[in-house]
Amino acid sequence: MLRPEEWEALRLSLLIAGQATGFGLVAAVLFAWLLARTRFPGRVLLDAVLHAPLILPPVVVGFVLLLVFGTQGPIGRWLDATWGVQLPFTSAGAALAAGVSAFPLMLRAVRLSIEAVDLRLEEAARSLGAGPWDRAFTVVLPLAAPGLVAGAVVGFAAALGEFGAVITFAANIPGETQTLPLAIYAALQVPDGEGAAARLSAISFAVALGGLLLSELLLRVQRRRIGR
Amino acid sequence: MIRVAARQRLGGFALDVAFEGPPDGVTVLFGPSGAGKSATLAVVAGIARAADALVVVGERVLTDTGARVFVLPERRRIGVVHQDARLFPHLSVARNLRYGWRRTTGERRIGWDEAIEVLAIGHLLDRSPRDLSGGERQRVAIGRALLSQPDLLLLDEPVSALDAGRRAEVLRFVAALKQRFGLPMLYVTHSEDEARLLGDHLVRIEDGRVVGQGSPAAMLPVRQVVGEAVGPGMVRVGEAVIAVPGVDAPSGAVVRVSW
């Protein structure tokens, strides 16, 4: 049914979106906590910077990533010199671009759910002898879990569909950075590619639908657990 | 011995209280809403930091602004029960109870089985907090605080969100607690009945100041009512049912209660 290179695009897409979601969610929890629970100068500025990928054209996001993580960029040069790691034109780079683009959506969902946790429950945990990390892992994060799931789902969907940032930063290399949307674009560039484009689109649709159903299931389980 | 002194300005409200309580009895903080009772408890629990405060429980100095001593709330070993039980909704009753229990260090003076028995919550252990009645929720909250092995128990209007029947039920358990564990308690209320029933020492607070302290009998006016016995220790007066320990007249009998 599918050709090997189409399977490869699907595998890459899931891998890249998975990595983007995994790392993005951890970062989202850290920054959401910072924004929801602490007050410091420059907080509003940080909030704006973190949300920038949402309002910038994806190509600009990819270009900024090239400036920062490219071989001549400050972090890119350091990564190359210290660890021998190069991000542009690699699947890790594609995951970075997809993750950065999807990050604001994850941040938003996670932050709302952390802000919704009743501070009085944390106070109760405190009087029972729980320190800050203890409270975070036993009270706040479990109660914010539905928001984390929701954040992971929108993040995964956004990362899966990201085109502009990925193609700008990581290019369109079959087997390395060619995710489903990039493969669809490539298919449309060749004569008689419509059949391949249609098949790839159908896979994208199936993956999206599957993810949505899975998240709905997870949410239901979570809600029952925390009693809402 | 409990010693508390706090001076703090909260907007237009000035809190300036100082009192002592017995080492193993119930000290009632009594006064109208907004008098500063809960603000005082917050200072004792370490949730609020007053500009000028002293909190001593037994031998332990928990707050002494003069000597720059401030023990974090999580290290105070002070159990707190509020009128909303604040049970963790994602944990079962048993795991709520275990939350403080697991985090204790050293010897446990209050036994697991003993606390559960006194509060009669053994049959609730596998339930979720949302499946409990108001009275059950408060009993579990008290149990959770108790099992964290506190040196002092703070009860902030623990029954004021309950209806009269449930109120009497929970008060009975608090009284049993006092008998059984001899733990010092600070009990905040604006109800004379509760103050009389539980208090060993009463501190009257009005407008952020202590306006008098002494035994509840001496501090509260004498009253007398005629009512109808409705069960052991329960008397109906008009629409309300009040707890009167010691009443064992048959249901329906007319009783005169003075205090």
Alpha carbon gap, first and last residue of chain A: 44 Å
How far apart, in Å, are the first and last alpha carbons of chain B? 28 Å
What is the overall pLDDT average of chain A?
Answer: 91
User: Which runs of chain A of at least 5 residues are low in confidence (pLDDT < 50)?
Assistant: none
Major protein interface: A-B, 21 and 26 residues
The figure for the number of domains of chain B is: 2
- Count of beta strands of chain B: 15
Count of individual domains of chain A: 1
Task: Indicate the percent of residues in helices of chain B.
Answer: 25-40%
Helical segment count of chain A: 10
**CATH-defined topology of the largest domain in chain B:** Rossmann fold
Q: Oligomer, anyone? A: heterodimer
Rg of chain B, nearest Å: 19 Å
Question: CATH superfamily assignment of chain A?
Answer: MetI-like
**Low-confidence runs of chain B:** none
- What's the number of extended β-strand segments of chain A? 0
Beta-strand content bin of chain B = 25-35%
Q: What structural class do you assign from the helix and strand content of chain B?
A: alpha/beta
Q: Helical percent range of chain A?
A: over 70%
Biggest sheet layout of chain B: 6 strands, mixed
Mean pLDDT of chain B: 89
Task: Summarize this structure briefly.
Chain A is mainly α. Chain A is 80% helix and 0% strand. The longest helix of chain B has 18 residues, at 164-181.
Protein traits:
heterodimer; A: mainly alpha; MetI-like fold; 10 helices; 80% helix; B: 259 residues; Rossmann fold; 7 helices; globular
Structural features, described:
The complex is a heterodimer of chains A (about 230) and B (about 260). By secondary structure, chain A is mainly alpha-helical. Chain A has a single domain (about 5-225), classed as MetI-like (MetI-like fold, Orthogonal Bundle), CATH 1.10.3720. Helices cover about 80% and strands about 0% of the residues of chain A. The longest helix of chain A is centred in the N-terminal third of the chain and has 34 residues, at about 5-35. The termini of chain A are far apart. Chain B folds into two domains: about 1-220, P-loop containing nucleotide triphosphate hydrolases (Rossmann fold), CATH 3.40.50; about 225-259. Chain B has helices at about 35-45, 95-100, 110-120, 135-145, 165-180, 190-200, 215-220; strands at about 1-10, 15-20, 25-30, 50-55, 60-65, 70, 80, 150-155, 185-190, 200-205, 210-215, 225-230, 235, 240-245, 255-259. Chain B contains seven helices and 15 strands. In chain B, a hairpin with a 4-residue loop joins strand 5 (about 60-65) and strand 6 (about 70). In chain B, the strands form three sheets. Chain B has a six-stranded mixed beta sheet, sandwiched between helices. The interface of A and B includes residues 118, 129, 139, 142 and 143 of A. Chain B: GO terms for molecular function: ATP binding; ATP hydrolysis activity. Chain B: It comes from Sphingomonas rubra.
